[in-house]
Amino acid sequence: MDMCYFIGVDVSKATLDWAVFDGKTLLLQSQSENTEKGIKATLRLIRALPGFKASQSVCCAEHTGIYNAHLLAYLHKLSFPLCRAAGAVRK
C-alpha cells in the first residue's frame, strides 16, 4: 500500500502540534490539547480531508516518554499506522 498522507506530531506536556502533508502540499496544521479529547477532535479534522484514508497514512511523533502516552494509546486503539522518532538533539 502506498502512503499518501504523512502526519507529523510535535509532542509537549500540554499540547500537540499537528501537520498533515500529502507529499506535495501541507494540508492541515493544527494544535490540540495533549488529551484524548484533543486527539479525537484533531483526528476528526484529519479524517474530513478530501480523499483521506487512514490505511494510506502514517503518523510520526517524536519520542517524549510519558508525554506521548495519550497519543500512542489512542492511535494504537484505532490501529492507526504510527512511528516514533528521536527528538532533536540540542547542543
Question: How are the SSEs placed, and which strands pair?
Answer:
Elements lengths: L4 E7 L3 E7 L4 E8 L2 H12 L9 E6 L6 H9 L4 E4 L6
Parallel strand pairs: 1-4, 4-5
Antiparallel strand pairs: 1-2, 2-3
Keyword list:
91 residues; alpha/beta; Nucleotidyltransferase, domain 5; five-stranded mixed β-sheet; 5 strands
Mean pLDDT: 89
Largest sheet: 5 strands, mixed
- What shape does the CA trace take? globular
Q: Mind telling me the CATH class?
A: Alpha Beta
How much β-strand is present in the residues? Answer: 35-45%
What's the structural domain tally? Answer: 1
CATH topology, by name, is Nucleotidyltransferase, domain 5
**Count of β-strands:** 5
* Terminus-to-terminus distance: 39 Å
Global Rg: 13 Å
Number of helices: 2
The poorly predicted ranges are none
Sheet/helix structural class: alpha/beta
CATH architecture: 2-Layer Sandwich
How much helix is in the residues?
10-25%
Element-level helix/strand string: EEEHEHE
As laid out across the biggest beta sheet, the strand order is: 3-2-1-4-5
Instruction: Supply the CATH superfamily name.
Output: ATPase, nucleotide binding domain
